[in-house]
Amino acid sequence: MGKYTEPATDLLQHVGGKENIATVTHCATRMRFALKDPAKADVTNIESIKLVKGTFTQAGQFQVIIGNEVSSFYNEFVSIAGLQEASKEDVKNAAKQNMSWLQRMIAHLADIFTPLIPAIVVGGLILGFRNIIGDIKMFDGSTKTLVDISQFWGGVHAFLWLIGEAIFHFLPVGITWSISKKMGTTQILGIVLGLTLVSPQLLNAYAVANTKASDIPFWDFGFAQVDMIGYQAQVIPAILAGFVLAYLERFLRDKVHNSISMIVVPFFALLPTVIIAHTILGPIGWKIGSVISTVVYSGLTSSVGWLFAAVFGFAYAPLVITGLHHMTNAIDLQLMSELGGTNLWPMIALSNIAQGTAVLAMIYINRKDQEERQVSIPATISCYLGVTEPAMFGINLKYGFPFLAGMIGSLFAGIVSVGSGVMANSIGVGGIPGILSIQPQYMGMFALAMLVAFVVPFILTIAFSKRPKMNLKTRTKTTKLNA
């Protein structure tokens, strides 16, 4: 009998057996099931398996938290179950049967932006570093920056913009490529479409506001004129254009005979899409994006901005459970393109810190429980580094009161952040390292907000732990005993 034979056998039984598994895969810490009938999963018994650290359902997938041993456990599980190994994409596709139309829409949005996040995080760190060396006057009596007094750092500052520009100004290329990849269409056509939205021939999007209408270049077709405006860093125009290209290509594939499809499909998919993008989708998408960013920014900077911050800070962790938090990526990117930064993302980083601190308090409360610490310590570390699932699903939601304490701590930290006007250069690492993405002039206030996200959840978690009625784990055990 192998090390994982018993827990794997138990898990197979409690998810409803082999016949209830459409497909299964794993990620860094979790088993990810697409179940034919999710109601057959016995959550109580699954979570009683010693190796299991928690369960949750997201995007139609039933996910079981195992920890760093998940890869070896998965191999044993599929061997016992007699299943074939599956990819994450297989599970996603199978899980769609368990998703509502809203969940499908959110899943699509997440699939578009997830491949782009590593580049966006790097770009945010680079912009933050450039701001520190190029904008903060900390030499010669606070009159000069590091760039002003050093040729080397001046060169570094200029060179790093090469990467920053590639990531943010040319973001539409990444978006249209990602859509093509997700939709299973020709990826190079997606890249070409994105390039047509940010071509150097076009008036840069950042220059449009300061250019007179009469000075905007245009294509003259005799019967019509089309403004030559670029969509650098614009999110919604790229999304709209990307989906038009993908659906048009898929339509043509079905209608055009294979013998001529290599010529006809790319031509009649790309050319009309580029025309539509610059005449209809681009202008409409720009206006939609501007409205979204204006509403969010106005809400956060208005006299009731504190209320917006309180609601978002309190609700963000529950949004993660539903998967709706993926929508914030598009809003953050739109804010960055319109305003040169985002005041929404800092609250996300603070929410992650607050949830991690709630687990830290649980480590203190259960300091004599070695088994609990084996789960809690890695969960805290990963949460502080931006990966919240082990902490939220493995500890906080299991007990209940730490999750609430983290939400309340996030609420107050969000108010401090928004109330002091904190702005981030871009999306960054959603935890303690998030301070590196904050614009330099706001780093001090963000550090204060981080302190709130440490102190409030820690104190509240300890206070709530003294109230047995708030402990979901204790209440569950009591219910079983009474039964």
From TrEMBL:
Topology versus the membrane: Multi-pass membrane protein
InterPro entries: Glu_permease_IIB (IPR036878), PTrfase_EIIB_Cys (IPR018113), PTS_EIIC (IPR003352), PTS_EIIC_1 (IPR013013), PTS_IIB_1 (IPR001996), PTS_IIBC_treh (IPR011296), PTS_Sugar-Specific_Components (IPR050558)
Stored CDD domains: PTS_IIB_glc
GO biological process, one term: phosphoenolpyruvate-dependent sugar phosphotransferase system
Ranges that cross the membrane: 106-132, 152-176, 188-209, 229-248, 260-284, 304-324, 344-365, 377-399, 411-436, 442-465
Active site: 27
EC number: 2.7.1.201
EC supergroup of this enzyme: transferase
Gene3D superfamilies in UniProt: Glucose permease domain IIB
Span of domain PTS EIIB type-1: 5-87
Residue span(s) of domain PTS EIIC type-1: 107-480
NCBIfam families assigned: EIIB_glc, PRK11007.1, PTS-IIBC-Tre
Name listed for the protein in its UniProt record: PTS system trehalose-specific EIIBC component
The species this protein was found in: Peribacillus castrilensis
Gene responsible for this protein: treP
